[in-house]
TrEMBL record:
Matrin-type domain mapped to chain residues: 4-36
InterPro entries hit by this protein: Matrin/U1-C_Znf_C2H2 (IPR000690), Matrin/U1-like-C_Znf_C2H2 (IPR003604), U1-CZ_Znf_C2H2 (IPR013085), U1_snRNP-C (IPR017340), Znf_C2H2_sf (IPR036236)
Subunit structure: Component of the U1 snRNP. The U1 snRNP is composed of the U1 snRNA and the 7 core Sm proteins SNRPB, SNRPD1, SNRPD2, SNRPD3, SNRPE, SNRPF and SNRPG that assemble in a heptameric protein ring on the Sm site of the small nuclear RNA to form the core snRNP, and at least 3 U1 snRNP-specific proteins SNRNP70/U1-70K, SNRPA/U1-A and SNRPC/U1-C. SNRPC/U1-C interacts with U1 snRNA and the 5' splice-site region of the pre-mRNA. Interacts (via N-terminus) with TIA1 (via C-terminus); thereby promoting spliceosomal U1 snRNP recruitment to 5' splice sites.
An example Gene Ontology CC term for this record: U1 snRNP
Record has Zinc-finger as a keyword: yes
Keyword vocabulary terms for this entry: Metal-binding, Nucleus, Ribonucleoprotein, RNA-binding, Zinc, Zinc-finger
Name assigned to this protein: Matrin-type domain-containing protein
GO MF, any single term: zinc ion binding
Gene3D superfamilies: Classic Zinc Finger (3.30.160.60)
Annotated GO biological process: mRNA 5'-splice site recognition
Principal subcellular localization: nucleus
Lineage: Eukaryota, Metazoa, Chordata, Craniata, Vertebrata
Length: 101
C-alpha cells in the first residue's frame, strides 16, 4: 500500500486510507501548515509581481504614474488621432456650412 505524502506538512502518512487522510487533514497541525503554505505562496506571488513591476519601471516600459490621467506613452499616435478628429469634425460641419452659405 502506497504511503500518502502531504505536501503541506512535508511528511508521509504511514497508512494511506480515506479515514487516515481525513483524520490528518482535519488535524490542527495540517490546517496550520496549509495556511502557512498559501500565505507563503501569496507572498511569493506578490513579491514576484512587485519585482516584475519594478523591473518594467526601471526599463522604462511603464510610466511612473500610470493612474495620474496623463496621456499614454507613444506620442506618435497623437497627431494621427488629432487629424482624424479634425476630419470627423469637418465632415460633420460641412453640411451645416452648406446650409448657411
Ligand atoms: Zn498535512
Amino acid at each position: 500500500m502506497p504511503k500518502f505524502y502531504c505536501d503541506y506538512c512535508d511528511t508521509y502518512l504511514t497508512h494511506d486510507s480515506p479515514s487516515v487522510r481525513k483524520t490528518h487533514c482535519s488535524g490542527r497541525k495540517h490546517k496550520e501548515n496549509v495556511k502557512d503554505y498559501y500565505q507563503k505562496w501569496m507572498e511569493e506571488q506578490a513579491q514576484s509581481l512587485i519585482d516584475k513591476t519594478t523591473a518594467a519601471f526601471q526599463q522604462g516600459k511603464i510610466p511612473a504614474t500610470p493612474f495620474s490621467g496623463a496621456p499614454p506613452p507613444g506620442g506618435a499616435m497623437l497627431p494621427l488621432q488629432t487629424s482624424v478628429a479634425h476630419h470627423v469634425l469637418e465632415c460633420c460641419q460641412r453640411p451645416l456650412w452648406a446650409v448657411l452659405q
